[in-house]
Sequence to fold (242 residues):
Amino acid sequence: MVSGGMACVKYLLFLFNLIFAITGIVFMSVGAIILVVYNGYNNFVDSWFFAAPVLMIIVGVIVFLVSFFGCCGAVKENHCMIITFSVLLLLIFALELGAGISGYMMSGEVSTMLENRMNSTMHEYNSKDDVRKSWDIIQSDLQCCGMKGPFDWTSVRGFSNKVVPDTCCKEVAAGSTCDANAITIRGDGCLTKLQAAIEENALILGGVGIGIALIQLIGVIFACCLARSIRREYETVETTAH
Fold:
């Protein structure tokens, strides 16, 4: 049985683990939401983009399971479980730190990636249903048209006389088409809007991840202090017994 200030550390560690369990659920939820929300934009981003939310879900599951070790170790004052918890928490911290650094490094490639993918998929609008669906979704959701503007579509095969996809217009009268010079045209390009949305979300996720990682470091310190106290108690008991 730990005593004195270590009893306080024990209950603080238990509280930290409850918080970890909640953050694990948050990580899984956010990762799943990103996969669902950006699923319609899969033709505009490379495969590595979806690695981040998948990693968030995996980390969320691991954090939730690790918090179980921490809670049990703190309540039962089990030295082995607390040490296991500390090691696993450090591994998660390293994983989150590596993912965060990779995310910030790859953020500089977002503009080039989007420009290349958008430029190529525009010419597939009339030939591939999934590409058409992606462009219609992004133009409706982000209130934009084309890569840099409505007139990008005039160079695409199948569009002539300034005719653009119907989703470029806020509204299209029955029996008519959307014109690049129409009053209801969405004048902004989709490239800058999608890039801004991705970079903004990346900064938010990065900030949240760093904050949680720092809290985890505090948890590791508490766990090590508690494990050290438990070990000393065992050694004292064994010495007294002999």
The beta strands are 163-164, 178-179. The chain has two domains: 5-110+196-241, 127-191. The first helix runs from residue 5 to 37. The mean pLDDT is 78.
